[in-house]
Amino acid sequence: MIHLQNIRKSYKNDADASPVLSFDTWQLEAGERVALMGESGSGKTTLLNLLSGLLIPDSGVVEIDGTDLAKLSEAQRDRFRAGHIGYVFQTFHLLEGYTVLENVELGALFAKGHLEEGRADALLKLVGLGERKHYLPSQLSVGQQARVAFARALVNKPKILLADEPTGALDRQTGHQVLDLMLKTAIEQGITVVCATHDSDVASAFERTVRVEELR
Amino acid sequence: MRFHSLVLRNLGRRRLASWLTGLSVSLGVGLFATVGALREASEVGFQRSASMCDMLVGAKGSSLQLTLNALYHMGQSQGNLPYEAYQEIAATPGVLWSVPLAVGDSYRGHRIVGITGNFFDDVKLISHQKEEALEFSSGGGFVYSSDDFAELKAELVEHEAGHEGGTHHEEHEANLFRAVLGAKVAQSTGLKVGDHFHPSHGVEGVSESHEDGESEIVGILAPTGTPIDRAVLIPIGAYYVIDGHEPIAGMKEGGARDPRGLSAVMMRTKAGFYRTGIYRSVNDRLDTMAIYPSVEVRNLFAILGAGDLILRWITALIVVVALVGVMVAIYNTMGARRREFAVLRALGAKRSTILGLVTCESAILALLGGCAGLGLAGLLIFAVSGQVQVQTGVSLSPSIGIAELELILAVTLAGAVAGLVPALSAYRTEAAHILSSNV
To answer: Which residue of B has its CA nearest to A95?
Structure first.
């Protein structure tokens, strides 16, 4: 499902700059749910960005479902991301000025084909916000915003869900609720999950935990 | 949600800024379109008025002054041509019809023009290669022929020579003191058929009234969109029998200031050889000048063209400044919108989609501003049309044609180009970097 090989990624053009990420191989099976742990600056977010195609490695292979993202053009990677990957950010990054429903629908705007009628509504019901679909993000609690971000990530029926510290901005109880919802849905829908976190309590909810430092 | 709703939503979110930038574009486009429409309508209107006759004859002097005074009732007469010259020229083979004109009096700011009665039948206005006869909204024209005029002139000459008493023109009075009003004159004065009025001597404002010139209104012309609408037409003989127009003792007959002369002669001539022959023979005379009014109008607009071009450039620059305003307004939002673009990129939007999004916002602002500008131009034209009609006789009406649609297209494209600067800034958004910074 996911296969990374000979990855090297640095943020400077200087060849001598020490890479943020450098490892030989990493592999995930379809439907696996993996927590990615590591210190701040260890490269967790960079790895997620490589998996999403937002970044490409300086060298190496980022193969998802048989497609090497590093060999695609940027536009092809964008299209691939729109169709295959859902992304939940630490601060959720919902767009103000758009209702909760519109924020979820935005997730399908750039994918091939039309959004199924009622899919965004159904997802909002799934995350318990069916009654608040016409609210603006600023009218929601942080926990509710996290649920909207999760619904938006699922709207295109992605094969892979990437989450960058999704509970980082939430209190423990709300964090657990969001995490439970995410994992339960992933299991039901067979979605591969890669979740960056520095919280071992969160990581323990996943099938497998990988420390980024150990990839090196 | 679709791409276009994303564009419209973004504009709606910055409602005030969108309104203000759209307004600035609309003002620029409105001004540009108004100036263009006024210029075009003026030329069309002037040419329509010039089509009343194909040749004008007057005293030697400025051809433009003769055209403006005789046909557009503007400015002062440059002098008179002798009556005898008129008789000779009118009798020239190839002259289809002629109408002698006498100007110099007014009624409540409207010029009074002395004519012969064939004016109402012979004068045709040509618009879009179609001839239109003059029509009356009420009443009709007066009968006063060139023969009646000749008879009166002969009596006046005899009277001056002392061969008859002082009541020489009394038998003519029943035919003389009648008038036909142009549509605007009737509208602004409220006069109707059967009413009487006293003309005033002179044309600049209200001056002394001719107590002996009380005239009855016998007809009101339908609107023509020409200076005829703001003229009071009377039999030309009336000019010669009312106070203030008597010859001055010792004045040389036939001189330019001789009140016994004519202000001008309108003529329709046979085309080709006849027309050029008449033109040449009139100009060969020492006391007369022939001109083609349509050529004079064309020359006038050629002269005005340079000034008009400058005005058009200035208004075009206003549109450009407004479009720069659109660019600046959108550019200023780029900093605050980077996160939005980054999120859209993370959701799968291509860089070109982000470029298109911002470019479309700019183009739509320009399009809406342009459309509003055309509406504004329509209102401006409607607002000034009455005054322009009164001042020049030119009829203006707001309309949307190919030129206006081209203008809108050009403004929209220019708006899109203006949007490219902020769009390129948006295009360069590095989603991974911005989303990772957790702002």
So the answer is: B340
- Which pairing describes strands A85-88 and A160-164: parallel, antiparallel, or unpaired? parallel
Residue to test with chain A: of B4, B14, B435, most A Cβ within 10 A? B435
Residue B301 lies in a domain: no
For B279-335, how does the pLDDT look when each residue is reduced to its tens digit (9 = 90+)? 999 999 988 999 999 999 888 888 887 887 888 888 888 889 888 988 888 888 888
Residue A207 C-alpha, separation from nearest chain B C-alpha, in angstroms: 26
ipTM of the assembly?
0.90
Q: Where are the beta strands (DSSP E) in A39-112?
A: 59-64, 67-68, 85-88
Please answer yes or no on whether A109 and B2 come within 8 Å at the CB atom: yes
Residues of A in Cβ contact (< 8 Å) with B434: none
DSSP string, B45-114: HHHHHHTT-SEEEESSS-HHHHHHHHHS--S-----B-HHHHHHHHTSTTEEEEEEEEEEEEETTEEEEE
- For residue B242, the surrounding DSSP H or E stretch is none
Going by pLDDT thresholds of 50, 70 and 90, the confidence category of residue B439 is very low
Give the architecture (CATH level 2) of A32-56+80-215: 3-Layer(aba) Sandwich (3.40)
- Under the banding of pLDDT at 50, 70 and 90, the label for residue B240 is confident
B50 within some domain: no
Residue B297 lies in a domain: no
* Length of chain A measured in residues: 216
Q: What is the band of B202 on the pLDDT scale with cuts at 50, 70, 90?
A: low
Percent of the residues in chain B that have a pLDDT greater than 90, as a whole number? 40
What residues contact residue A152 under an 8 Å CB cut-off, 6+ apart? A86, A94, A103, A104, A106, A107, B347
